[in-house]
Amino acid sequence: MSAHAKTTNPDSDDSPGTAARFAGAVAPAAAWAFVFLLLRILAVSGYDWNTAFAVSTTISFSDGLALLVGTLMAGYLLVAILLIGVLPLLVATLVWSSRGRQAVVVLSTVLAAVTMIALTVSFQIVWLPISAAAVFGMFALIRILPEESSMRRIFSSAMTSVGWVTGVAVLFVAALVQTPWVPEEQIGTTDGTITGYVLSVDSGFVNILTEDHTFMILISGDITSRD
């Protein structure tokens, strides 16, 4: 028997498992991001394939966060309606489920709560927090039902799948909100005024999507103002 005892490297032993967990988390996130991006391009293009192809050329990987935030802000009313169900479910998961200890649940709950506060204050949507509180009260009543109750089983499954529920809700917004992720502008040109959205500014050219989902490329020198 060798005098040298075999040593183990904890980092080496854990690396396959860590890599598998990392891949298991990244792959669904990447797939979700791709579906979100595709739905946004199609939605703002009025689900016209040729327009969507033109719009896709204006987007880069660095635009991802701005695209997500801009989408949620552009579709604020739909976001408010979805928050009535999503935020109470996140809070219920945080309070009553073992998944509530996960960082993603805590962060999602905080972001959803801040979003609700901002929407309520900005647009005076008084019914938003009242409705969310009523839904949470309904969840509390469901939780005291017997364990064999079908409603309680459905509620427990929803808490277990809260990440998927939240992700699908955001995809729902992406598919229905046809307003682009940038503010609407009045673009003055040498031929008149265009109402639309500036998707990108390239060297010597400006890419614009109009209100009726028409993609236009203007020469920068022809633009006299942007308001």
From TrEMBL:
<keyword id="KW-1133">Transmembrane helix</keyword>
<feature type="transmembrane region" description="Helical">
    <location>
        <begin position="20"/>
        <end position="39"/>
    </location>
</feature>
<feature type="transmembrane region" description="Helical">
    <location>
        <begin position="51"/>
        <end position="70"/>
    </location>
</feature>
<feature type="transmembrane region" description="Helical">
    <location>
        <begin position="127"/>
        <end position="145"/>
    </location>
</feature>
<feature type="transmembrane region" description="Helical">
    <location>
        <begin position="157"/>
        <end position="177"/>
    </location>
</feature>
<keyword id="KW-0812">Transmembrane</keyword>
<feature type="transmembrane region" description="Helical">
    <location>
        <begin position="76"/>
        <end position="96"/>
    </location>
</feature>
<keyword id="KW-0472">Membrane</keyword>
<protein>
    <submittedName>
        <fullName>Uncharacterized protein</fullName>
    </submittedName>
</protein>
<feature type="transmembrane region" description="Helical">
    <location>
        <begin position="103"/>
        <end position="121"/>
    </location>
</feature>
